[in-house]
Amino acid sequence: MRTQRQNQKSPPFKEGFFCVGVIIGGHGIKGEVIVRPFTEEPTGMVSYGTPVTLEGQAMELSGLRATKKGVIARLKGTVDRTEADKLRGTYLYAAEAELPQTDEGEVYFQELTSMKVVNEDMSDFGVVDYVFETPANVVMEIAVEGKKDKVLLPFTEDVVLKIDHENSRIIVGEMAQQFLEL
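Given the sequence above, the corresponding structure tokens read:
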């Protein structure tokens, strides 16, 4: 089974930070950028302070507006389209300390990435490689030992039985087995 994100890749890991978006190109002639947001609210990526790059460079965004293409933003110090286009592929991060506390039963996507996935009997299922959202639900991309292609599991109550934060694992039910055969 092929994954839906053939041309996408997971954001690089940055210790103590979470990815809020990626610059996908320039917009207009005045140096604005288009950002693909990874936040619940498209323009919410600046709610956690000034985003930084993987290298730690501050990226001051202003005038954010959501569009079908992504979030268009003015980037301090970027004056033209050429400069903005050079930033294509730049991931933006915010400090994990800025994240609001989750309610019971809620989880941040980055918490799931790299978690071990086990069956109810605690036998290995795989490891979460990536988490993304579809119009229907959240989906986990699982690397399963011995399988060439990743397995896509919906993050739903009938598939995911429990998130065991203490042991950094996700316990899945019988329904997850059906996705191995697709």
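The first strand starts at residue 17 and ends at 27. Try to locate this feature in the token string yourself.
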